[in-house]
Amino acid sequence: MDFFAQQDLARRNTRVLVILFTLAVIGLVLLTNVLVAGFLFFSEDYNVYAGSRGGWMGFLQQLSWDRFGTISLVVIGSVFLVSLVKWLQLAAGGKAIAESLGAEKVLPQTRDADERRALNIVQEIALAASMPVPDLYLLRDERGINAFAAGVTQADAVIAVTTGALHHLKRHELQGVIGHEFSHILNGDMRLNVRLAALLKGITFIGDVGYILLRAGTHRGRVRTGVRGGGNSNNSGAALPVLGLGLLVIGWIGGTCAGFIKAAISRQKEFLADAGAVQFTRDPDGIADALKVIGGYVPGTFVHRARAAELSHMFFGAVTHRLWQGFATHPPLDARIRRIQPRWDGEYISRRVRHYPNTRIESADVEFRPGREALVAAVAAVEATRGIRTRPLAPLTEHPPAGPGAGPETEEPPAPAIPPGLLAHVDDPLGASSLVLGLLISDDPAHRDRQLALIAEREVPGQATLVNTVAPGLAALPAGLRLPLVNRCLPALRAMSAPQYRTFKETLLAVIRADQHTELLEWCLYQLVRHYLDPEFVQVTPSRPRYARLGKVTAPLTEVLSVLAHEGSGEAEAAFTRARDELALPKLRLRPREALSVRAFSEAVHTLADCYPLLKPRILKAMGEAASENGEICPVEYEILASIAAVIDCPLPEDLKAPPL
Amino acid sequence: MEVTSIVFWLVILALVIYVIAIYNTLVKLKNRYQNAFAQIEVQLKRRYDLIPNLVETAKGYMAHERETLDAVTTARNEAAALLKAIGEGGGSAPALADLAGAENALQGALGKLNVTMEAYPDLKASENMQQLSEELTSTENRVAFARQGYNDAVMAYNTYRQSFPPVVLAATFGHPSDAELLEFDDSPQIQAAPRVSF
User: Fold this and answer.
1) Quick one: closest CA in B to A115, which residue?
2) Other beta carbons less than 10 A from residue A73's beta carbon
């Protein structure tokens, strides 16, 4: 099969269809105009003197440019409005769409062999397609063999597969399926689809208007005639439903035609994506065999999620049955196979269907799901031992043989002293979030109970138990290891879904506030987590540079430097002087310890975040000076520095970087 | 202003925009294929990093097959060193040919190791080995796909450069010649994937 030729063919067909579609829309606008003109023409009063309505010329008179413009504007405006709404729905990005379908993200550190394989395949195809690697999602408990790609741009695209596809397809077949989805992303099919859907909505909108007019017209016609005399109102009262009916018919015909063309475009896009899959894998058998397996597989490609039908055009195979091929979003299987393998003998491949028990106990998917409390707790216990045993395998993903204990993701030097019992939890979202919460648990028993109660209140299954389990270990953790531990937790925390992250952040805040006052270290931890995770989940507005000179921010500088000087291990006055000299601001005066509060400190740091970017390294350098007054930066100082750097959004200078252990 | 002159300026403006678009597309395509080339290096490195793991795992099961294992290690080290040299000194043609040779030797050694492993069912069945096997398959694919991605990117660049309006301007814009497709002297051997069956 010459896949380049196939792609050209599919692209050409798509272009023709898109032109046809546009023509249909234009034709529709024209037809609407003619209808309205005709309506006005016939509803005009009969001219007694002229004896006629002016004939053909009279009709054309109604078709003025002004009116034409107005009507076209209304139609186009409605299309634009509808497309805007559609855009907003999809602009949330592939991640949001996948999650709305109930798909779960496959974590990069998964230990499940099938998931590993799928992740590897995604990375391979990304290379072949010269594209950034999209996230992989899994539609659990779907037996049908299917997959979809979502996302309007390459950067926010995600790929999802069903468990059926994961378990029933061989490696090269799954490669074909995933290659097909990549091709969809690469060709911008999602965008085209949104545009077409929006246009289609606009067309059916004309029909909707017609329907409303029809209803309103007949209604008013019945009530008004007789109440008000006069030919004019009588006449239009009868004509309005006619106009409505006309619009309804136009909308219906237009909608059908456009829907027909849209489905045809969608089918061409499927052919194109199949050819794209062959281009990426250079292996026609992969995608062809996958299609054959689907043909011989009883559950087929059907997906039972609630929103699946609405998004059917995104999937690899048809999601539901279509009675009539004309509106099908996907070409029939045999047609697709024959495009790839013209000499196919018509035999499908039948594979033994794997049955899924309802309760699957797997360590890799510990998730925040209701009703699994006991399970999660049990898994967490098992995990503690499992994690240690399998750990030496992890490095082989990226690193040369490192010693046991080196995680696959961390660039930081391995933290040898973090107890393995804690490390066992850093790789799954529940464990990681529990560790972060556990760091905040107070030593004071009264506060401790309150905090634990707060965590339990959020009803995240297993979390309260887990926090309780890890808290003693965390309390015993040396201060220098807190930050490395948080860093190790971040990849897993990133894998949370948006609602999970919201809950986590709320819990975090609640736990911090539980003892009525915020400690400096609590503030640091919260800021770090917020800084690294917020961009994953919420729109972050960058700070606006406002202060061009250090002289304008002396008050916040005094506050922050005073806190650092007092909290640090060295002598406060000397530390403060060093920082002052570094900044060349002789007017700064150290504030006494009693005058400082975390709240004021937080506000001061946030003010500093609005400095011009080039000032920030200088500020950090001065803080480093203050912190290293006694020759070294102690862990607590380093923690404060790191969180300040996070808040003001400026990396720590090189010489401050190495975390002291 | 008269209508004709407005139209004239509009046409000029459109032409300018078109020329800018050609320039930008050329730059984009060139960067894309250069990036694709860098990817090959990354993936080769990944494979070299993986092999010590493989050897390490195999060692535990086949201690008296030292020779085979050592051959793999030696070939791997040689290829890795060459890749490093290329990374530092830029890719000259003879250096690339050397690397291709070293790659070949490595694949031969790997193939031999695979044959030897057939005799050790315990090794084949071990969880470690199965994971490694998946990783190795994936890496072989990545190397192949990276090469192919490079060739695809080169093809896109060349096609655009040679097609009509751009061909007139390409040389002026600093794109005087076609990019080279990736071919090794011993293409057939390289393109044959090593037998990876544990």
Assistant:
1) B134
2) 12
Say whether pLDDT at A332 is over 90: no
Contact B149 A128 (CB under 8 A): yes
| Cβ atoms < 10 Å from Cβ of A461 | 20
CA distance A293 to A563: 66
Confidence of residue A576 (pLDDT cuts 50, 70, 90): confident
CB atoms within 10 A of CB A416: 10
User: B107 in contact with A at a CB cutoff of 8 Å?
Assistant: no
Q: Give the separation between CA A260 and CA A269, rounded to whole angstroms.
A: 14
Q: State which amino acid sits at residue B125.
A: A
ipTM value for the complex? 0.72
Superfamily for the A94-188+271-359 domain: Metalloproteases ("zincins"), catalytic domain (3.30.2010.10)
Query: What's this model's pTM, rounded to 2 decimal places?
Result: 0.64
Give Cα separations from B52 to A539, B43, B68 (angstroms): 43, 15, 13
Secondary structure letter of residue A510 according to DSSP: H
**CA nearest neighbour of B113 among B55, B56, B74, B61:** B55
Other beta carbons less than 10 A from residue A21's beta carbon: 22
The 3 state secondary structure assigned to chain B is CCHHHHHHHHHHHHHHHHHHHHHHHHHHHHHHHHHHHHHHHHHHHHHHHHHHHHHHHHHHHCHHHHHHHHHHHHHHHHHHHHHHHHHHHCCCHHHHHHHHHHHHHHHHHHHHHHHHHCCCHHHHHCHHHHHHHHHHHHHHHHHHHHHHHHHHHHHHHHHHHHCHHHHHHCCCCCCCCCCCCCCCCCHHHHHCCCCCCC
Share of chain B above pLDDT 70, in %: 85
- HSE on the CB side for A323, CA within 13 Å? 0
Q: Which residues pair with A148 in a beta bridge?
A: A160, A315
Q: Which of A425, A411, A534, A398 is nearest to A489 (CA)?
A: A425
Tell me which chain B residues have a C-beta less than 8 angstroms from the C-beta of A400: 49, 52
Query: Would the CB atoms of A127 and B43 count as touching at under 8 Å?
Result: yes
Q: A158-162 and A135-139: which strand pairing?
A: parallel
Cα Rg for chain B, rounded, in angstroms?
24
Angstrom distance (rounded) from CA A532 to CA A517: 24
| Average per-residue pLDDT for chain A | 75
Whether A639 and A533 have beta carbons less than 8 Å apart is answered as no
Instruction: Provide the token pair at A458.
Output: 């959020």
Active-site amino acid positions of A:
181
Contacts of B39 in chain A (CB under 8 A): 127, 130
Q: At what angle do helices A429-440 and A498-513 cross, to 10 degrees?
A: 10
Bridge partners (DSSP) listed for residue A611: A547
List, for residues A362-399, the tens digit of each pLDDT value: 333 334 333 344 444 444 444 444 433 333 333 333 33
**Are the Cβ atoms of B134 and A120 closer than 8 angstroms?**
yes
CB–CB of A436/A508 below 8 Å? Answer: yes
Contact flag B52-A400 (C-beta cutoff 8 Å):
yes
